[in-house]
Sequence to fold (231 residues):
Amino acid sequence: MKKNDGIILCVISGGMDSATMLYKAQQSSMVREGKFHVEAISFNYGQRHSKELSYAAMLCEKLKVRHDIIDISTLKPHIGGSALTDDIDVPEGHYASESMALTVVPNRNAIMLSIAVGIAVARKAEFVGAAMHAGDHAVYPDCRPKFVKAFQRMTDVATEGFADLLHIWAPFIHCSKTDIAKEGETLDVDYSLTWSCYKGEENHCGVCGTCVERKEAFRDSGVPDPTVYAY
Fold:
């Protein structure tokens, strides 16, 4: 990395959205003028679908991006009660269903982004990338535009004098997953190296909320779906 290159630190899960964001980040002009160095972090928070982390690692290896997995799994007993972390059946159906509230992990994005900002300050990064999108707004309050705006204000205060130009970059905050799939096709994203399913079994289940949304995104965008679904 050249001394005058900026850094963007992308928070990636291993799913479609953050994979597309990672590819997008590598196209510097899509973020701001000039070039910068792309790095990535993922979080092990005790999620039952932790296999997503191996997909994140494979993706970063393919793109030759530095990738660190931050282990915060000791929080699991203290922020439990979610189908993503506890022995609770993962609800099936569309994200619009009220049952999807069972997949909420309390304050997850705020926790992860707070850690990401700390790492970004230490690495002198200019951007922290977060891939929340409009399809998440219904069930996840920490995926909404007002959350991103509020978190940016908090970041400005918390890093004043240390990282005055640190920006939360949420390129898909007003986009649907179908929009993301369409953009991913133009970026040549390898979606076979992504994992969405909340059940974390051998193949995508095909019936949980995130699988249903993944299927719809590929179908409605016309982008070929490389995913093997159990159902």
Q: What stands out?
A: The radius of gyration is 17 Å.
